[in-house]
Amino acid sequence: MDKEVRISRKCTSLNKDDLPCGSPPLYEDVQCFMHSPKHREDAQKARSLGGQRRRKEQATQVIFDLNDLTSLEATDRIFEIVALDTLQLDNTPARSRALIALIKTKIDMNKHADLAQRIAELEEAIGQENAIKH
Ligand SMILES: [Zn+2]
Questions:
Q1: Ligand 1: distance of its center to the CA of 70 in Å?
Q2: Are residues 45 and 73 in the same domain?
Q3: Exposure of 54 in the CB half-sphere (CA atoms within 13 A)
Q4: Which of 18, 67, 90, 131 gives 20 to 30 Å between its CA and that of 7?
Q5: In this structure, are residues 24 and 6 in contact, taking their beta carbons and an 8 Å threshold?
Q6: How many domains in the chain?
Q7: 30, 29, 28: which is closest to 20 by C-alpha?
Q8: Last residue of a domain, one of 38, 63, 88
Q9: Distance 83 CA to ligand 1 centre (A)
């Protein structure tokens, strides 16, 4: 079968909202893995594992106080967690190297934040029409 033809095919089943599934079907099948009757048991296991994974991720976010993983605050919080976890390890040369790597990383993070702040201040000073395009 031609590769481009396979890519353009779509699963013939409907999703839970009664809309076309849209996922690519399995090879020599008209339905995707999740809708194919041949893979019903495996698909159910995959759904169950996916649900467990999402619940575990949500619990992890609460435990580590991470609301928005894309935020700068989350980056700082993860850095703090890693630093504290590393400090709690036995005092070994590996722990020392890890702590030094953490310090270097934090210095780089601070430099980046400082430069971003300075650029923002310069753009503010020269006006929006002269701001650096990016
Ligand atoms: Zn499907």
A1: 30
A2: no
A3: 5
A4: 18
A5: yes
A6: 2
A7: 30
A8: 63
A9: 44
- Give residue 134's pLDDT: 66
* Residue 85 CA, ligand 1 centroid: distance in Å: 43
Q: Is residue 2 part of a domain?
A: no
Tokens of 52: 């467990």
The DSSP output letter for 5 is: H
| pTM for this predicted structure | 0.61
Please, are residues 11 and 22 in contact by the beta-carbon 8 Å criterion?
A: yes
CA–CA gap between residue 50 and residue 123 (Å, rounded): 45
pLDDT score of 23 more than 60: yes
Digit-coded pLDDT (tens) for 59-109: 999 999 998 888 888 989 999 999 999 999 999 999 999 999 999 999 999
Q: How far is the CA of 23 from the centre of ligand 1 (A)?
A: 5
